[in-house]
Amino acid sequence: MKTLLPCVCGCLILLSPAYAQQMATTAAERFATLDRNADGEVSKDEYDGTTLFQALDADNNNRVSVEEVQAFLGPDRDGQLTAADRIRVADFNGDGELSDEEVRRVVEMRFQSLDTDHDEVLTLSELQSGFWRPR
Ligand SMILES: [Ca+2]
Ligand SMILES: [Ca+2]
Ligand SMILES: [Ca+2]
Ligand SMILES: [Ca+2]
C-alpha cells in the first residue's frame, strides 16, 4: 500500500487544498485502506463497515477510540461534530469506544448521506465531513 500513497495524496491535495496540509498522513493512509483499487475514491463496493473499522482502529485492539477517530478525520473544524460527538452518535452501548459491530451498524446506513455530490463514490473529504452525522 505504501507505494500508492503519492498518488492518493496527490489526488487529495487537488480536491482539498485548504486542509490537505494539516491533515495527518495517517488519515490518507487509512483512507487508502478503504480505497482498495487506489483510484483516490471509495466506491460502494469498497465501502464496508469491516474495512472502515480496520482503517479506524490504528492500534488494532478491536476498539475505535476518540483519538483514533480524531486521527482519521483530522482537526476539528467549526460547525462540525467533534470526534467525541461522532463516537457518541455511533456508540450504542455507551462505553465510549466503538466496536466493529457499532461501526458496521452505522456504516450500513451511511453511503448515500456521505456522498454529497451523488457520484456514487466517496472522496476522503466527503468521508471526513459527513462521518457519522447525527442523521
Ligand atoms: Ca477506489
Ligand atoms: Ca483501537
Ligand atoms: Ca461502544
Ligand atoms: Ca461523491
What does this structure look like?
The protein is mainly α and 135 residues long. It has one domain (5-129): Recoverin, domain 1, CATH 1.10.238. The chain is 51% helix and 3% strand. It has helices at residues 5-15, 17-20, 25-34, 49-56, 66-73, 83-90, 100-108, 111-114, 124-130; strands at 42-43, 121-122. A two-stranded antiparallel ribbon has the order 1-2. The protein is globular. One calcium ion is lined by residues 57, 59, 61, 63-65, 68.
Ligand identities? calcium ion
Radius of gyration: 14 Å
Largest sheet: 2 strands, antiparallel
CATH topology: Recoverin, domain 1
Order of helices and strands: HHHEHHHHHEH
Proportion of residues in helical segments: 40-55%
Report a brief summary of the structure:
By secondary structure, the protein is mostly helical.
Task: Identify the notable features of this structure and list them briefly.
135 residues, Recoverin, domain 1, two-stranded antiparallel sheet, 9 helices, binds calcium ion, EF-hand domain-containing protein, EF_hand_dom, signal, repeat, EF-hand-dom_pair
Reconstruct the topology from this structure.
Elements: H1 5-15, H2 17-20, H3 25-34, E1 42-43, H4 49-56, H5 66-73, H6 83-90, H7 100-108, H8 111-114, E2 121-122, H9 124-130
Antiparallel strand pairs: 1-2
Helix pairs in contact: 1-3, 3-4, 4-7, 5-6
Bound molecules: calcium ion (CA) (4 copies).
Keywords: Metal-binding, Repeat, Signal
Pfam family, one: EF-hand_5
Domain EF-hand: 30-47, 52-73, 86-107
